[in-house]
Amino acid sequence: MRIAHLSSECVPFAKTGGLGDVVGALPKALAARGHECAVWMPFHLPAAEWYRKHNLWPEQALAPFSVDVLGQRYQVGVLRGELPAGAVPVYFIAHDPFFHRGPIHAPNEQGFDDGLWRFTLFVRAALEAMRRLDDKPQVLHAHDWHAALAAMLCAWSGWRDRWFDDVAAMLTIHNLAYQGVYGGDSFPALGLPPESFGPGGVELHGDVNLLKGGIAAADLITTVSPTYAREITTPDGGAGLDAVLRGRGDRLLGILNGIDIEEWNPASDHHLPAHYTVDDLPGKALSRRALCAASGLDPDDPGLVVGAIGRLTGQKGFDVLLGAVPTLCSSGVRIVMLGSGDPALEAEMRHLDASLPGRFKAFLGYDESRAHLIEAGADAFIMPSRFEPCGLNQMYSLAYGTPPIVRRTGGLADTVIGFDGANPATANGFSFDDLTVPALVGAVRFAQQVFGTPVWARLVRNAMKADFSWGRSAIHYEDAYRRARELRGLAW
């Protein structure tokens, strides 16, 4: 099958979160199963910097051409590269005024959020380039709101453009909290039929809501875990789009993300001081000593070391974790945390680092090598998310034999089987439900009691034997692509 992935991010060229990881890995897993895949993304400044760092540059795929958006003509270039170690082509849409700036989703020089115009240009240019290359996919796979216009063009432009007649559109929601909302007066820039600005289209509360439009238009909607697929159809989890999603419930399904087992594998991870496997674990103990030494913790202290990595946002529940740190550290737990984001949470991390030396270590920012060392060297890993569409760090932790302690929500509920005292044969971590300091402290203290017992060794073994590879997930995506085409009345 021929699948074109449209996304604002793709590892290693540009990433702000899990979206980039997914788009960098899923096409490679599908290609390994015999599918023809391509990735389409903007040529962001970080992508250009990646190429310069590696003394490379993508080749020109097409001569520059113009795209009209709301009567204004923009000249775009199309460059072609490949995903590393995957031989999957990546087509970059280049237009420096829109994309040659960073961070990826930053406002323009006037401080104006021009995302609707930027990503409208991206989608329209990508589709036009596919035509010029005579490379029509069987499925357009749009990722999040940035690419949702592709699904709308498939559904609502057929009256004037027969190119879409035999192309199915699938939309994956990676995080419902980000929807691409702009004033209603920006609707004409999308180039859609007037009737698509209404309750059954892209309009919500008088605004353009690009994710809502994609949900309404796509032949099939997926999200990144089965539990999250259920949660987003509820008022509590739907972020204002629950009614729209319930209305398309027969076309909504959850497919759990995978992890890149070439990048995240303790048996071959070049970031670690020693490698290890489920049947040969001494390397994990050496990673623990290295993490403690790098964090100012006593490597000979046998007490539980808990790792935490992530964006410092309300979604991740780190405000509750930081509130629990003094209590946990007073009971012998040590914590190593890596993250950046909310300035108030960064300040609290600095305060705890200064006031709890040898017990709490804060690393601000993001460092890939340090992230790998935390996953391998910590005894346990904590993710107290308010909501979590899928989550990747808990799967990395499982692969590295570091039992996760998670709040039971979204993909965390689908991947972590909490030990309840009676299920050592199947458990691979610990779970709690209430996002409160007492509930979090209780879960960590329970893990602390189990740590060092034969049950802990069983949890580690269960964790490392779980299969969260993209090869497993790719099979489910194959089924989804077939269903999307069948729902559109097309053969596959």
CATH topology of the largest domain: Rossmann fold
Question: Helix count?
Answer: 17
Q: What's the structural domain tally? A: 2
Contiguous low-pLDDT stretches (5 residues minimum) are: none
Question: Based on helices, strands and strand pairing, what is the structural class?
Answer: alpha/beta
Q: What is the approximate shape?
A: globular
Q: Supply the CATH class of the largest domain.
A: Alpha Beta
Mean pLDDT: 95
**Which sheet architecture does the biggest sheet show?**
9 strands, mixed
Q: Main sheet: which strands, in order across?
A: 3-4-5-2-1-6-7-11-12
Determine the fraction of residues in helical runs and give it as a percent range: 25-40%
Whole-angstrom Rg: 23 Å
Q: What is the beta-strand fraction? A: 15-25%
- The CATH superfamily title of the largest domain: Glycogen Phosphorylase B
Q: How many strand units?
A: 18
The rounded distance between the terminal residues' Cα atoms is 7 Å
* CATH architecture annotation of the largest domain: 3-Layer(aba) Sandwich
Question: What distinguishing features does this structure have?
Answer:
Rossmann fold, 18 strands, 492 residues, alpha/beta, 17 helices
How does this structure look, described?
The chain has about 500 residues and is an alpha/beta fold. The protein folds into two domains: about 1-260 and about 470-485, Rossmann fold, CATH 3.40.50; about 280-465, Glycogen Phosphorylase B (Rossmann fold, 3-Layer(aba) Sandwich), CATH 3.40.50. Helices cover about 35% and strands about 20% of the residues. It has 17 helices and 18 strands. It has helices at about 20-30, 45-55, 95-100, 115-130, 150-155, 210-215, 225-230, 240-245, 280-295, 320-330, 345-355, 370-375, 395-400, 410-415, 435-450, 455-465, 470-485; strands at about 1-5, 35-40, 60-70, 70-80, 90-95, 140-145, 170-175, 180, 205, 205-210, 220-225, 250-255, 305-310, 335-340, 360-365, 380-385, 405, 430. The chain has a nine-stranded mixed sheet with strand order 3-4-5-2-1-6-7-11-12, with helices on both faces. The longest helix is centred in the first third of the chain and has 18 residues, at about 115-130. The radius of gyration is 23 Å and the shape is globular. The termini are close together. The mean pLDDT is about 95.
